[in-house]
Amino acid sequence: MAAVDHISTPKFSLFCAPVALAEAAWARFTQYRMYRKTLDELSTLTRRELADLGLNRSMLKNVAHEAAYGSN
Fold it and tell me: How confident is the model over 20-42, as pLDDT tens digits?
């Protein structure tokens, strides 16, 4: 038989919420930067280079989005 004599809960201060919000905002910003960089790099490729990769220009935004944010 088991007994619990102490239950602890996390203690949040007023400082935790802004830090978590800032970390989430930074994570979203870095994902957006990855999206833009991927899209910019893919946009510089020629039609022939894109065809070698199995892509066409209409697919670039979707490919960059998947690279930055993952698949849906």
Answer: 889 999 999 999 999 999 999 99
* Global pTM exceeds 0.85: no
Cβ within 8 Å of residue 68, ≥6 positions away? 31, 32, 34, 35, 38
Q: Amino acid identity of 64?
A: A
**Residue 20: what pLDDT?**
86
Q: Which of 28, 27, 55 is nearest to 41 (CA)?
A: 55
CA 38 to chain centre: 13
Measure the CA–CA gap between 67 and 72, rounded to whole angstroms: 11
Q: Identify the pLDDT of residue 14.
A: 66
The upper half-sphere exposure of residue 72, i.e. CA atoms within 13 Å in the direction of its Cβ, equals: 4
What tokens does 7 get?
A: 């239950």
